[in-house]
Amino acid sequence: MKILMLGANGFIGGHLCDAIMAKTDWQINAMDLSHDKLQVYLNDPRFRFKIGDITEEKEWIRTQVEMCDVILPLVAIATPALYVQDPLRVFELDFEANLTIIRLCVHYNKRIIFPSTSEVYGMCPDNEFDEEESYLVTGPINKERWIYSTSKQLLDRLIYVYGKHKGLAYTLFRPFNWYGPRLDNVFNPKPGGSRVLTQFIGNILRGENINLVNGGLQQRCFTYIDDGIDALMRMIENKNNCASSRIFNIGNPLENISIRQLAETLLQHIIQYFPRYALQAKQVQLVDVDASSYYGDGYQDVTLRVPMILRAKEYLGWAPQVDMNVGLRKTLDFYLSS
Ligand code: UGA
């Protein structure tokens, strides 16, 4: 099988390349702006890499879609602070650039595995989000945060319609707060410049206090990257068409914790297992901050976000295996042990 992976050097792409190269004989043709996570594969005949920007390398992408069997367009801005700070870039990259790729898949009749997001459910009041039943609830236009959610939502709708009316072969997957080694750069000093876990690790490393937006009572289901990759491998393999024309929530409903609990657990882990940073961690304070002063007026939050994963269990035979203690420990080993 020949896979075209755009954004192969990202968090999901890098881990997916590791799994494909280790466990299969599949060929990967990949593009990204850089290749620091992929160095070991650059001379492997099963891995072809091109440095490039998907908004510019249109002809290369066209020929690759034509040549490959499965297309994984993983390029997207996925940090909430940027949805508010640079919504136009989010629209241009996440929506417009990916739309071109989706249309190429339709044109060349290629299977697409597309990253939707838990964000599409927005402020849905359901206790568990159901891929086929839950309403997708976003806020007013003056809340730019929703540009990411609605861009992804419209692409989900389009892919579904292309599938139903034009025969596009597709699978949509919705990651719920995937985390693990190589998530974001913890040395990025911009507040809100990365996702919450890496933001907090960076705060601790820099000896800063941790900001709990609106008190940190909002909850997330943190899902370890290996579990996410396991689900993706099953979608790519697509045994007996188990993933065809389906949408899958890929998240860990058992690890539903508040952001305050996340901060507390993280500090406890560091104090207990990483003595080099224990003193620093003991001095960190948890400080409540107002969402609009932290992110700006265009922000609105999600208070509860729990995936229903019955479909992933039934069709993919998948269930998350890694609990938060193990996943956090592995993540901290990566960031703090070097
Ligand atoms: C994320 C991002 O939109 C995407 O990465 C992705 O599509 C999706 O969730 C997902 O992975 O499921 P969110 O969970 O809101 O959205 O993003 P985080 O930046 O990880 O923030 C989680 C929570 O922590 C938010 O409520 C945020 O306000 C809070 N937070 C963040 C703090 O309390 N303090 C901080 O310093 C940073």
Topology, element by element:
Layout: E1 2-6, H1 11-23, E2 27-32, E3 47-51, H2 58-67, E4 70-73, H3 80-85, H4 87-108, E5 111-115, H5 146-166, E6 170-175, E7 178-179, H6 196-205, E8 210-213, E9 219-221, E10 223-224, H7 225-237, E11 246-250, E12 256-258, H8 259-273, H9 275-283, E13 286-289, H10 291-295, H11 310-316, H12 324-336
Parallel strand pairs: 1-2, 1-4, 2-3, 4-5, 5-6, 6-11, 7-10, 8-13
Antiparallel strand pairs: 9-12
The ordered string of helix (H) and strand (E) elements is EHEEHEHHEHEEHEEEHEEHHEHHH
**CATH topology grouping of the domain at 76-180 and 223-254 and 306-321:** Rossmann fold
CATH superfamily of the domain at 76-180 and 223-254 and 306-321: NAD(P)-binding Rossmann-like Domain
Number of strands: 13
Summarize the structure in words:
The protein has 338 residues and is α/β, with parallel strands linked by helices. The protein has a domain at 76-180 and 223-254 and 306-321: Rossmann fold, CATH 3.40.50.720. The chain has helices spanning 11-23, 58-67, 80-85, 87-108, 146-166, 196-205, 225-237, 259-273, 275-283, 291-295, 310-316, 324-336, and strands at 2-6, 27-32, 47-51, 70-73, 111-115, 170-175, 178-179, 210-213, 219-221, 223-224, 246-250, 256-258, 286-289. The strands form 4 sheets. A 7-stranded parallel sheet has the order 3-2-1-4-5-6-11, sandwiched between helices. Strands 7-10 form a two-stranded parallel sheet. It is globular. 44% of the residues are buried. The mean pLDDT is 97. It binds uridine-5'-diphosphate-glucuronic acid (UGA). Uridine-5'-diphosphate-glucuronic acid binds next to helix 6 and strand 8.
